[in-house]
Design brief:
It contains 16 helices and 9 strands. By secondary structure, it is α+β, with helices and mostly antiparallel strands. The chain has a 5-stranded mixed sheet with strand order 2-1-5-3-4. A 4-stranded mixed sheet has the order 6-7-8-9. A hairpin with a 2-residue loop joins strand 1 and strand 2. The longest helix is centred in the middle third of the chain and has 18 residues.
Amino acid sequence: MYVWQDRAVKAEFGGEQKYVKLSKLSFHAFLKEVLLKFNIPKGRQPDIKVYDQSDTEVDLEVFEEIAKESPGIFRVTLCSEEPDGGPGHVRQPFTSHDVPTDEDMEAAIAVLRYSADEDTVRAKMKTTFIYRQAMVNDADKSADVFSVFPRFLDTPGLIEQDFRLMFGEVTSNKFLERWPTTFKRKVMEESHGLVPTTELLDLMRNAESAVEVENGWDSAATSAQGRKRPGKMSASQAVDQLMRFQKVGTSVQQHLDSITQSSKPYLLVLGSTKSSIHSYFVVIDKHALPCKATGSVGDFDELFKAHFVFGTSYSSCLNNIFTFVQTTIYNIDSCRVKNKNGALVKNC
């Protein structure tokens, strides 16, 4: 008869590995310890999925058997309750926060309307995060989010802060950590196998010229979109969907006033030329939100995160690119999205 003794097993969540000590061999005991070890809110336990090293899902029925057989690392993910996860779904915050009283909330919102002190703004934005997420996910109130929280329009870094409150610091850092060292090379390798159009070759030359283009556009993220098929857009069209270039010195407000129809979020870039960019903005619903990053990779990261912070679905034209980033790099809802992981690169 097999007797389980106190033992530590390895678990991975959000790219971080830790030992989880189990005094009892059971799936529920494992989940309980994972919640504590990785500071996951207890309410998210139903959203947890566990996988073994072969990326096969592990459940209550088989956990004990696999744990006895030197399981290696159990990979833990959080999935949304909806069947096709993505930025438009309601989520609980990554870490638990005390819910402020109505009076505290009203006071924080009042401060945010007038305060220019960045530390104060960041603190009050944290206080109002849960309230703001409720607004974003309420069809009757979502259009007012920028009038209630106008600091989005003049304080860089608030998109990043809200995303971290949603998913945690480890998840939030994944793109900037993994893109230059791992995924950019893989995307470039895929691009070499595509039909070589003029636009694709231009993008590839630009992307291969440096690991990061500090004041220009690093186009590797869109180069895998290069094969032009019927109904599919070219690489240059993909870049046009991601960003709009405007000469430095021209009015951002004039650009916003020229918008005549609703569109998904995109980057507005200001510079003397496309290879010399001075500033970036995320444009959402005729509002321009200043980006904190100074390079194209960091600003692409902010654009991606804005979809989740404001509950906005991806543009259908860019769905493959953003879903690849979401599921393969960030591992967000990767077990719920139909097209997932490496296959997305090939289907871009």
